[in-house]
Every structure is written in structure tokens, then in C-alpha cells.
Amino acid sequence: MADSMVERGTALLRKLEINVAEAEKRTGKNTVNMQETYTVYLIEIRPAETEGGTPAAPDTLWRRYSEFELLRTYLLVTYPYIIIPPLPEKRAEFVWHKLSADNLDPDFVERRRVGLENFLLRVASHPVLSNDKIFFLFLTEEKGWRDAVLETGFQDKADSRLKSLSAMFRVKNPDKRFTALKQYSDELNSVISQLLRIRARVADRLYGVYKVHGNYGRVFSEWSAIEKEMGDGLQSAGHHMDTYAASIDDILEEEEHFADQLKEYLFYTDAVRSVCRKHELIQYELEMAAQDLAQKKQQKEELATGTMRIFSLKGMTSKLFGQESPEQKESRLAALEQSIQEGEETVKEKNTECQEFVRAAWDDIEHFKEQKDKDLREALISYAIMQISMCKKGIQVWSNAKECFSKM
Amino acid sequence: MSVSAPRGLASSGQKPITEILHPLSAAEEPLSPGPDVTVSGGRDKEVGLTNGTPVETPSPASASVLFNRLQLDDDLDSDGRDPYADTETHDLFVTVDDPKKHVSTMETYITYRVSTKTTRIEFDLPEYSVRRRYQDFDWLRTKLEDSQPTHLIPPLPEKFVMKGVVDRFSEEFVETRMKALDKFLKRVADHPVLSFNPHLNAFLSAKDLNKRQGLALLSKVGESVKNVAGGYKLRVRPPEFCAMGEYLDTFNQKLGTIDRIAQRILKEQSEYLTELREYGTVYASWAGSEEELQRPLEGVAGCVTTCCGALEDMSENMGQDFLPVLREYILYIESMKNVLRKRDQSQAEYEGRLEAAVLRKQEDRTPIPAEVEKCQDKMECFNADLKADWERWQSNKRQDFKQLLTGMADKNVTHYEKCQAAWESLITLLQDKQTEDKTSCKSLWEMRQ
Fold first, then answer.
1. Helices A106-124 and A133-140, interaxial angle, to 10°?
2. Beta-carbon neighbour count of residue B350 at 10 Å?
């Protein structure tokens, strides 16, 4: 994964090597002044290899998960046209029975460490995101970073954005490409969720199969005690059965890595969806602005020609209470003219905004698609390699057992 | 006592059992072959016992004599060979195959073809082919048990099957049962004593097995053992038979455990298979919404399907070959325990009678009746037969389980090999595409720079 990112090397990555090296437990008081235990992660920054130089000691700082979340929210709000890389899951989901759902479980923490490093590398290798100042400060300023983020005022934008994203609205002429993308994203989300759920069930069952074989180990051992010639063969075969039963733990632990790769793209679909929604919003606003402008123009025309095709309160009241004076009419026309000009400005702005958004977003989307195809193919390859390794282990153990049996 | 020179042994043919030299008392004297004994060549040089007499009067006692002599010598299997491999008969071959369904107005049932090839003179023809059903095998076994109570009779597959639960006419059931019947018959035909039983002869050769006729051919030993008075209670079982009993109990327990484990594994595998199938279909459906990833995803779906097939094959195998053999041995153990019990009874009767006779002698000098000696003979014969059959059973058991467990391991290896092959061919497919893409992808990016 690091290879493919370096290929796409941004200015930032050319200068820096980024690692999430360790995880540590801390206790402290939280915002409501209660004691809590949480995990912090050590970020190491090293200048990238220069010729002939010895690698310098890294700069380090500690961050906890909630700070990563804050960074990501900032990026989401600031770059609404970019598919923001996702964070590893907050809580363990799609678990099969053996995995602890506890956030402090060492295996979970380790996998999260890898996921966080992944997140940083993806941002650092992104042509747009890697240039962000706040991101840079996240990597370098342990203390002052939080204030810096809040100072950007992104929270206000966040609130309004959240509001708009959850609002129901319909776009009259949806952009076909975005519609298709949203649909694809929803499908991908659904299929990966399904896959992860079933994979967890499969893992659970396979665990059962392997572990039951451990019982053979015990019974062969007991049986060998009453046998003469058969004893040795049975006893050693029993040991191999124990080995077989024990091997499933490592096998399934390794498979979690594959699940994590799938999960990343599951969460990516949320990011894609939100870009599509943002586009819809902009499109909608553009349509509204255009509609509003058209309405005003219509009003002006009617006012000028004296016809009332569109209902207006002014028109109604003037009908009921008598015509207005030419001066009144003049001033109204002027106000409308002003409004129309403003409206035209707005439409122009919105149009530009929309076009800019589409251009920038679609650039990123194309990148994303390539990255997705590449990453997922690699994930499938590594999954196949894992399966082969599992088969080889199985062949080894059973061949050994077979030899023991044949010596009975 | 040495067994370096093979001996022909006296056939008890025409003599009543009481006149046969007691094997233990005659230990030092060589028995010269009687006029009606034929020494037939075995596989190597050992003597195969042939009963030269007409079928109507079998001689289990002489068989006991043979085995008793061999039994007393511990050097026999020092070279690790199966001591009874060469005393097994090689002139009687039987096979059970070709199941067919018969439908009549009264019932529907399966018959099997029983083929026999033999050079024995007890048989009129060298070859036979008859059709028999399970009932007939059951009849045979009962007759063998009755007429040779001192011997271990191999077990039959289960008689009763729950009508609603198991399909008596399904291919798997019939196949499994047939293999077990074949094994049963082969074991009987290989047994140096049982193979000469007239009921076996009738079973193999008669056109119509008239079971009601009940050939009145019970041996003298058979008769007397059958009619042992039940009033005697055994005091002390000799240590060697105690050891047998203990072994059987423990072995029975272990087999039961193995059976349960095997069944549990099959269950877990079946549930795993269900989930795995669904897993494969999700990959296939995902492939439908992808372009570049379509082929790789279909490939994965295909691999998963292949693994499902491999697992199915292995599970079927376990169900058909592994479990039935285990169950068969459990039945075998049951029948062996029965024989041990009968042996106990025979000893109890002897000791009881002896005690009574001794007391009377002390009282009024009545001599010990010949009957008591008869009982002693019976008991000794029983012990000898049992010991001989025990050794043979142990040896067969070792072979059977070696084969069974090696087979199980082998099936597992094959299963994993199939899966590995599938995944390896997928990787080749995926990696080819990858190198192809890597070059094109890079240039795309470079363009944008």
C-alpha cells in the first residue's frame, strides 16, 4: 500500500515519512470531569531519505482517536468536493465470537493503529489534502493544534452543512454521472456489508471445525494408553491434531487484515455519498436561484405591461384598493430591477460554484476509482495468498498425522 | 514347545470329543496325521487346516488344538508378522456386490449377489453365485453364534433403521450396508474354523436358503455350551480374561468418543459449508456491479465454490466409510463381551461341579465323575478358542484402524490440495492483470502531473 502511494507522491510525502508507531493507555479526566481510560497513538515524522545522510531521529507526538475524528470532520467540511479517506472503525463491528468488542483489547488496538497510519498516509498522498495547513499542524503541533482547528471556524460551516445534508430536496435535472456514482456507492456499501457479515459467520464456523479436532488429540492419547503396538502412532497423531486445532487462531487473526481492507472501502462509500449529496445541494441551490430569477423577471414584465399573470399581493391589493401611482410603480420597478441584477449575480456565482465543484470532484472521483480497483484487487490477491497458506498448513499437519497412523 | 516344523494334526472327524487327547496334557507328544487329514499348502509353508471329513461332522476341537499349540509359543510373532496371517484360509473367496431392489406385493427389499470361488472339497462346485438379503445374513450369523459359541463372530451392520429418518433404499445407505456385509462375510470366510461351518456352506451355495429347516448340525461343544446350567456363579476370572474385559470396556468407551467427535465434526463442517456457499454468492453478485474488478471477483466466487465441492466430497466420505467402520467395531465389542460372559459361565460350571464332586468324595469316597472332566475340557477348549480368536481380532483391528485413520488423513490432505490448486490458479489470473495495469496506471498519473 505504501508503494502505490509513494508512486503518487505528493510534495508532502516527498519530504516526510509518517508512521503511527505505537499505542499506549492513558487515564485522565474527560470533559465532564470523570476518570476515563483511553488509548493514544504515537505519530512519528521523519524527513524522507536524503542522499548520503543518516536517518534523523523522528519528531513525535501523541494523538488520541477523537483528535483524528476532529481532523477528519474539518477536512470533510473544508473540502466538500473531495472523497475524504475514512478512519478505522470506532468500535469493533462484524465480529465473530472470539474477537473482543472491547476497544481496549490489544488486537483491536493494533489493528486500529494500522488503520490510523493508513489514514494519514492517504491524506498525505492526496494532491489536494496534503497541502492543508491544519493537516500539517496535526502532524507537528501537539498542543496548539486543537485551537488552530477551532479558529478556522469550520464548525459553523459544519452545522449548516449537516442541516442541508439531512434536508429533503429534489433536484429537477440531476447530473447523470453523479446519480450513477451514488447508486454504485450504495450498491458497494450494501455488498461489502453483506460480505463482512457472512465472512464473520464463516470464520465462526471454521473455528468450530478446527477446534473440535482438538478432541481427537485427547482421545487418541487416552486410547494409546491401552494399546501396545498402536500406542506410539496414536499418541503422535494426537499431537498433530492438537496442532491442527491450535492453528486456526493465527489463520483467523490474519484474515482480519482482509476484513479491515474491505471495511476501509465500506467507509469510503459514506464519503462518496456525501460528495454526491453536496453536489445535489449545490445543484439544487442553483436551480432555486435560477427559478427565483425567472420569477422576478416575470414579475417585472407583468408590472411593466400591466398584466398580472402571476399572483402578487401588491397586484391584489392594488386591484382591491385601487391602482398605485406612477411614482409607486416606478419605485417598484426599480426595486425589482435591482433584485433581478442581484439574482443574476447569484445565478452566475452558483453556476460557477457548481461547475468548479463538478470539475474538482470528478477529478478526485476518477482517482478514487482507480485507487479502489487497485487496492481491492491487491486485497483479493492477499486473501488468496492467505487461503493458500492455510491449505499448506492443513496439508502439512494431516500428512504428518497420516505418517503416524501408517506406523501404527 | 517348538513350532519349527509344521505338523499335520489329527482330525477329530469320527471320534467323539471325549476321546480326543486333551491339548494341554498331550503337549509334549507329536500328533501324527490321521488317515483322513489332508495337508494343503498355505501361502508359505504352514499347514492350512483342512477338514477332510464330510460336512456333517465338523471338528472345532482340532482347530483349538492347532491354535493352542501356536498360542503357547510366544516367539511366534517376534518378527512382527501377524501370527495368523498364514493360518488363514486361502481357498475360499467371497464377495458381496450388485444390490438390486425387489418389489413384491408383500414387501420391498434389497438383495445382494454373493459370489464364491473355492477349491475346497466340501463344496460341490468351484464357483457359486446366489442372491441373498439382509435377513439371510442375519440368519447365518445367528446360526454361527449358536453353533460356534466359543468363537468370536464378526458383527453385522445395524439391523433396524428408523423408517422415517433413514431411506433404506437410498444409494448411500445400500452402498454402506453392502460394504459391511461384504466385510462380515470375508471375515467369516477367512476364519480357520468358522469358514468350515455347514451353515456358511449352505448360505454360499444353496439356491434357496431354507432357513426353517434348521440344519441339525450343532457340534457337541456347541450343544453342551448352549445348555450350560445358569445356576453357577463365577468366582474369579483369570487375569488374562480380566485384561480382555477391561480392554474391551475402555476401547468401547474410546470408540464411542471418537464416533461422537466425528459426528460433531461433520455437523460443524455442514454448517460451515452452508455459510461458505452464501459467501461465494456475495462475491458473484458484487462482480455484477464492477467493471475492472468483475473478473477477479468472479474468480474468487469460483474458488469458494470449488472449496465447497471439495468439502462436500470429504464429508460424504466420512459419513460413508469412516463412521460405519467405527460402529461396526462397537458391535464387535458387544458380541465379544458376550462370548467372555459365556466363557465365564463355562468356567463357573466346571468349578461348581468340581467343588461338589470333591466334597462328595471326601464324604463317601465317590470318585470324581467323568462329567466333571468333560466340563474341564469344555472350559479349556473355550479358553483356547477365545484366546486364539482374540489375537486374531487384535491383529485385524490394528490393520482396520490403521487403514481407517490413514484414509481419514488422506482425505483431508486431498481436500486441502484441491483448495490450494484453485486459489493458486486464481492468483495467476489476478497477478497477470495486475502487471498489465500497473504500467497503464502509472502513465495515466504521469499525464496528469
1. 140
2. 23
Residue among B190, B175, B168, B169 nearest B321 (CA): B175
Nearest to A206 by CA among B256, B301, B279: B279
- Maximum pairwise Cα distance, chain B: 126
Question: Residue A130 gets which letter from DSSP?
Answer: G
* Residue (of B94, B66, B75, B293) closest to B184 by Cα position: B94
d(Cα B160, Cα B31) in Å, to the nearest integer?
A: 48
Read off the pTM.
Answer: 0.77
Cβ atoms of A347 and A240 closer than 8 Å: no
Q: Do A405 and B402 touch (CB under 8 A)?
A: yes
Any idea what the Cα angle at residue A383 is, between residues A381 and A389, rounded to 5°? 105
Mean pLDDT for chain B overall: 77
pLDDT, tens digit (0-9, with 9 covering 90-100), for A317-338? 666 665 667 788 888 888 888 8
d(CA A38, CA A12): 30
Q: Which three cell numbers stand for residue A302?
A: 407583468
Q: Which residues 371-410 of chain B have a CB within 8 Å of chain A?
A: 398, 401-402, 405-406, 409-410
Q: 3-state DSSP call for residue B193?
A: coil
Which of A3, A236, A380, A406 is the best residue to mutate to test the B interface, defined by the most B CB atoms within 10 Å of its own CB? A380
The residue in chain B having the minimum alpha-carbon distance to the alpha carbon of residue A367 is: B445
Among residues B299, B298, B308, which one has the least CA distance to residue B278? Answer: B308
C-alpha cell belonging to residue B390: 482374540
Residues of chain B in contact with residue A388, where contact means CB-CB under 8 angstroms, are 420, 423-424, 427
Q: How far is A207 from chain B (nearest CA, A)?
A: 9
Under 8 Å between Cβ of B35 and B14: no
Query: Helix B370-448 crosses helix B239-287 at what angle (to 10 degrees)?
Result: 20
CA–CA gap between residue B283 and residue B294 (Å, rounded): 9
- Give the span between the Cα atoms of A175 and A172, in whole angstroms: 10
- CA dist., res. B404 & res. B410, Å (int): 10
Q: How far apart are CA B255 and CA B263, in angstroms?
A: 12
* Contact call for A219 and B261, based on CB within 8 A: yes
Cβ contact (<8 Å) for B427 and A384? yes
Burial letters B24-55, b for 16+ CB under 10 A, else e:
eeeeeeebeebeebeeeebeeebbbbbbbbeb
Task: Judge whether A112 and A118 are in contact, CB under 8 Å.
Answer: no
pLDDT given for residue A14 in this prediction: 66
Q: What is the ipTM of this complex?
A: 0.86
CA count, 13 A, side-chain hemisphere, B76 = 21
Question: Least CB-CB distance to B247: which of A222, A226, A399?
Answer: A226
Task: Looking at mean pLDDT, say which of A51-65, A230-244, B98-112 comes out highest.
Answer: A230-244
Query: In this structure, are residues A86 and A56 in contact, taking their beta carbons and an 8 Å threshold?
Result: no
DSSP A89: P
The torsion of the CA quartet A394, A400, A404, A406, rounded to 10 degrees, works out to: 90
Residues in chain A: 408
Cell numbers at A225, concatenated: 494408553
What is the CB neighbour count within 10 angstroms for residue A340?
Answer: 16
